[in-house]
Amino acid sequence: MAVSGFEGFEKRVELRFSGDDPATGKGLRRLDFFSLEKVLHAVQCTVVSAVGNKFFDSYVLSESSLFVYPTKIIIKTCGTTQLLKSVRPLVDHAITMGLTLCGCRYTRGSFIFPDAQPHPHTSFKEEVLYLEENLPKNLSIKKASVMKSKSCYKWHVFTACDEGSMMEAEGARVDDHDGLFTVEICMTELDRVLAKNFFRRFNDGKTGDSAGKEMTEVTGISSVNRNALICDYAFDPCGYSMNGIDGSRYSTVHVTPEDGFSYASFESVYASREEFLEQLQKVVKIFRPAALSVSTTCAAGREVWRGVAKAVEPLGMRVRSRAKDEFPDAGAVVFQTFTARRK
Ligand SMILES: C[S@+](CC[C@H](N)C(=O)[O-])C[C@H]1O[C@@H](n2cnc3c(N)ncnc32)[C@H](O)[C@@H]1O
């Protein structure tokens, strides 16, 4: 942990592969646990709990989450982890399974404690350089951009893909190659009373799993998506992580409740804008942050960002800025920031 406080803002990387194993269709899910742990060791985190269904495997980590699909991996880590160190080993493991990397997307917000970040996360420039050096050469179509806001929080995006993926994305005009769009929500300065729900009582006699389950219920996180199977974990003395699995769709919540650097994140994929907006409202009510950012990534031409301001306005949040950009393979990214009227 940094001397100053825990860095809640996560780094997130999504790797897409082509060439599934036609015999089992399990692709990357065949990666054994020992190999996965070795990759996570390089990142400096560990698995605290795991669950899977017929579509994917989901892992709650000591620092955030990992999702493994047959041809896609999403890994999100916070604190002072070295997330990008996972990229090359994951690509190498995939090659042994007959899979080729065809797309990479790296996103993160602005760190609260940037000076505490180790290599290669000391700056966005360094992260991009590291990715360029460690990604296979077939990912020749690249773009890196920092999307600005009116506050100190920015959204950093890097994407890279091969020519085949680029043509496919242009033809289908569908992001994520499955019709879903991704939403990443970051919240800071959480309501102090609500943040207390993510602290454990001294010597509570509970396990991380049982205390996590209780937090999921007490805070209302269980009602964000009632169809999701939730795998939750409460850290000691405070902090919370959960992964939700709903068919082929994941969701994830991470909370750093300490006053002075409180932070919570919510991420999920959606097919419908209505469902997204309904869940966004529930999430904002759980944390009542003073500052909120909502990043949507979807096919170019789909305007899933619309309606966000209208959805959070009745909850006392006012739109501060909106930045839009397009990225090869990923599609349109819209980064919107909001602040609470009370501040
Ligand atoms: C891993 S969780 C959630 C991470 C998430 N990205 C976030 O900040 O919202 C981080 C919270 O758990 C607390 N925590 C307690 N023990 C921890 C541990 N062994 N590893 C990581 N975090 C721990 C941290 O102080 C922090 O409040």
TrEMBL record:
Entry's Gene Ontology BP terms: plant organ development; spermidine biosynthetic process; spermine biosynthetic process
A GO CC term attached to the entry: cytosol
SUPFAM superfamilies associated with the record: S-adenosylmethionine decarboxylase
Stretches of the chain forming a coiled coil according to its record: none
Pathway(s) this gene product operates in, as recorded in its UniProt entry: Amine and polyamine biosynthesis; S-adenosylmethioninamine biosynthesis; S-adenosylmethioninamine from S-adenosyl-L-methionine: step 1/1
Pfam family, one: SAM_decarbox
Catalytic activity: S-adenosyl-L-methionine + H(+) = S-adenosyl 3-(methylsulfanyl)propylamine + CO2
Binding site for substrate: 6, 63, 235, 258
Site entry (Cleavage (non-hydrolytic)), positions: 63-64
Name of the molecule in the record: S-adenosylmethionine decarboxylase proenzyme
Organism: Perilla frutescens var. hirtella
